[in-house]
Amino acid sequence: MIDVKQLKYFVTIAEEGQITKAAQKLHIAQPPLSQQLKQLEEELGVPLFDRKAKKMELTAPGKAFYEKAKRLLAQLDDAVAEVKEIEEGTAGTLSIGCVKSCFYYLAQAIRHFHEQAPNVTFHLREGDTFSICQLLYERHIDIGIVRLPIDSADYDVIRLPGERYVGVLPAQWKTGQTALCMRDFADWPLLLLHRVHGAGQYERVIEECRRHGFEPNVLCECPDATILLSLVAQGLGATIVPQSTVALFRLPGIKVLEIIDSSMTAEAAAILDRQRYLPKSARTFLDVLQTAAARAAGGQHEER
Fold it and tell me: What is the pTM of this model?
């Protein structure tokens, strides 16, 4: 079988034109180099060099084999370099799934991470918390960014800073208010985020409404934040969502107001499959994500 060492020896001989010079460049003795060339020619069944000339010149088969061998060695060098860069976290592809209400965190993190590792590319998937968990379980993504709660038995959970909920009203509603109380929502139709499967933000908002003494009038349930905000902009009703959701998807036709008497906080987390190897690029990205989320949460507190 032809091995990489024989290919390197052959290419060096072809480029130097002499066994002696090739041996000096490879830092080996001349006899074993000659023996390796002989074995290669026997393996191929063709002469690679014309030994009658003053200088070792490639035969027609030798010229063809030289071009192929040189290309194979270059590809091998590229593969080794790429593997090292991936292990160092400076190259490769990072697959991330994210719920839309957390896209603000994700966008900030990708921007900062790209400055550190410009050769890492991203493959992004979107869905609700249940579908992101499924994508992680099926190994379609490396990292999931979801809203809590989740069943954490199968995952490592890295909590991100909590954030407050805000009220979002149609701009066409002339309420004259600069801030809201939970009781204000008793008189309005509500459009709420609701997971396809499981309990989450929807149940949290309903519970908060009941804690303030009223049963909300839920006009629409939807897992997609952009659709929900678009419906609010059309005047169908109000919604209550995490502040970062409107920070990224702030559409014309809506107004965002603080809810001054609510203790609700939206909790998000990055989740990992604890059974899988996590490349360094993913580990570095998680650090960047946590920093970006903390910075965003700090900005929210300053706005208060």
Answer: 0.66
Q: Check residue 304 and give its pLDDT.
A: 44
pLDDT, tens digit, 9 for 90 and up, residues 65-90:
999 999 999 888 877 766 776 666 66
pLDDT in tens, 21-73: 999 999 999 999 999 999 999 999 999 998 776 678 899 999 999 999 999 99
Structure letter (DSSP) for residue 238: B
Q: How far apart are the first and last CA of the chain?
A: 72
List own/partner pairs for 177-184 with CB under 8 A and 24 or more apart: 177/257, 178/257, 179/257, 179/258, 179/259, 179/260, 180/257, 180/258, 180/259, 180/260, 181/212, 181/259, 181/260, 181/261, 182/208, 182/209, 182/211, 182/212, 182/259, 182/261, 182/262, 183/212, 183/213, 183/214
What's the fold here for domain 2-80?
Arc Repressor Mutant, subunit A (1.10.10)
Residue 300 has pLDDT above 70, yes or no: no
The answer as to CATH 3.40.50.300 being correct for domain 162-262 is no
In the chain, % helix, strand, coil (3-state, to 5) comes to 50, 20, 30
Identify the three-state secondary structure at position 65. helix
DSSP 125: E
- From the list 290, 13, 19, the residue with the least C-alpha distance to 158 is 290
- Superfamily of the domain at 89-158+265-296: Periplasmic binding protein-like II (3.40.190.10)
String of DSSP letters for 273-294: ETTS---HHHHHHHHHHHHHHH
Separation between Cα atoms, residue 143 and residue 278, nearest integer Å: 9
38 CB-contact burial (10 Å; exposed 0-12 / middle 13-18 / buried 19+)? exposed
Domain coordinates of the chain in residue numbers?
Answer: 2-80, 89-158+265-296, 162-262
* Residue 88 confidence (pLDDT): 64
Asked if 146 and 268 touch (Cβ cutoff 8 Å), the reply is yes
